[in-house]
Design brief:
Elements lengths: L3 H16 L5 E8 L2 E9 L9 E4 L3 H14 L8 H4 L13 H6 L17 H10 L16 H14 L3 H13 L20 E3 L5 H8 L11 H7 L2 H6 L6 E3 L1 H13 L7 H9 L21 E2 L20 E2 L7 E5 L4 E7 L1 E3 L2 H16 L3
Parallel strand pairs: 4-10
Antiparallel strand pairs: 1-2, 1-9, 3-5, 6-7, 7-8, 8-9
Helix pairs in contact: 1-13, 2-6, 2-7, 2-12, 6-7
Length: about 375
């Protein structure tokens, strides 16, 4: 069982911003030994234990985990060129891009445009691939591909698996794990339990940015307030945007990470699963945070260097902790040493991103203390 005093402190910290009106509701869960030991939902009376939240980029490892299966089966290889499987992609110099680079966010098209309504139509998505241009030489640097890379992964799944990426992820990963609420793509009629996203607060001032980061501000790139609202639109939740459109309860997300720790039903090949959890293949610096990104083929690893906090894992977790957070303050990770996995989800997207970051560090630190 988790340490009760530590868990109470975690809940108290999560409740603080609900009480202050910064987030309308939130949900957190701790799991160990394949079981959710604690799950709490706070805030809006319409939110309950079965309420689901848009998990934004915490979706990425779920989709990547289906790609790990293709790698284990030999139908896909890290060194394969994307064009080997998606010929339409090989325009404008992109014929050199490899599957590994796409998984590592080093493929050179971080801001490649694709949005509604085109992203709802597979033919339109593939047509968009052909128009994408490279921003820099593939493999030469890291820049976060907020959505573009995972659209390529989704099409790789579709080409190799012979089915829609939403169906492939569900059949290959979610269904075998018995997860009832985690989904990539939910029909509009089935979204009654998905909490409405609300933007709150005011952005930091230039002076606040300067005091904390030494710079007057941060370019949000593709992850603007308008884009985050777009992901939560019911029509787009139905699309199953593979880089940021999944929905879940905190409990199911924590259980997904328990499966990455233990895989009792053999969903993944153990060699590939271990590589995905621990083999850091991208140590380029993050241009926004100024620290190595410590990326595997689908996850981030905490590490024990000075950048561990900036990678979003807080204090107290081991260096081998792995996970992937999401926009708006979503948290998801597992610690192989303690056996604990943690998820925090909210529908309140705080415009004050410095406050949001501090909350993430605090919650992850308090969660680690529950082990």
């Amino acid at each position: 069982m988790v340490r009760r005093e530590a868990f109470d402190a975690l809940v108290t910290r999560a409740r603080r911003e609900v009480d202050q009106g910064i987030v309308p509701s939130c949900q957190l869960a701790l799991a160990r030994d394949g079981t959710v030991e604690e799950q709490v939902t706070l805030g809006d009376a319409t939110a309950g234990q079965d309420s689901r939240y848009v998990i934004y980029s915490a979706t990425k490892p779920v989709v990547a985990s289906a790609i790990w299966q293709l790698l284990a089966e030999g139908s896909l290889h890290l060194e394969d060129k994307v064009v080997d499987h998606i010929p339409e992609f090989g325009t404008l110099g992109k014929d050199v891009v490899t599957v590994e680079q796409v998984l590592l966010h080093t493929s050179g098209f971080p801001l490649a445009p694709l949005g509604p309504p085109s992203w709802a139509d597979r033919d339109a998505r593939v047509a968009a691939f052909a128009a994408w241009r490279l921003n820099w030489e593939p493999g030469s640097q890291f820049e976060y591909h907020a959505t573009s890379a995972h659209w390529v992964l989704a099409e790789l799944l579709a080409r190799i698996d012979g089915t829609d990426h939403r169906d492939a992820v569900h059949r290959r990963v979610i269904e075998p794990l018995g997860l009832k609420s985690l989904r990539v793509g939910v029909p509009v009629a089935d979204q009654g339990d998905v909490q409405t996203v609300i933007h709150t607060g005011e952005p930091p001032t230039a002076e606040e940015f300067e005091a904390v980061l030494g710079i007057p501000g941060i370019d949000p790139g593709e992850v603007t307030e308008e884009a985050l609202q777009l992901f939560a639109d019911p029509a787009n939740v139905a699309v199953g945007v593979p880089g940021g459109g999944g929905v879940s309860t905190a409990g199911d997300l924590a259980l997904f990470y328990q499966a990455l720790l233990h895989d009792p039903t053999g969903v993944w090949d153990p060699v590939w699963l271990e590589r995905a959890r621990s083999e850091i293949r991208n140590r380029f610096n993050d241009p926004m945070r100024g620290v190595p990104v410590n990326r595997t083929i689908g996850l981030m690893v905490r590490g024990d260097d000075a950048g561990a906090l900036l990678r979003g894992f807080g204090h107290g977790a081991s260096a081998s902790t792995f996970g992937h957070n999401g926009a708006g303050g979503q948290l998801a990770w597992a610690d192989p040493e303690s056996g604990l996995s943690f998820a925090y989800l909210t529908n309140g997207l705080d415009r004050h991103i410095l406050r949001e970051a501090r909350r993430g560090v605090a919650l992850s630190s308090l969660a680690a203390a529950c082990a």
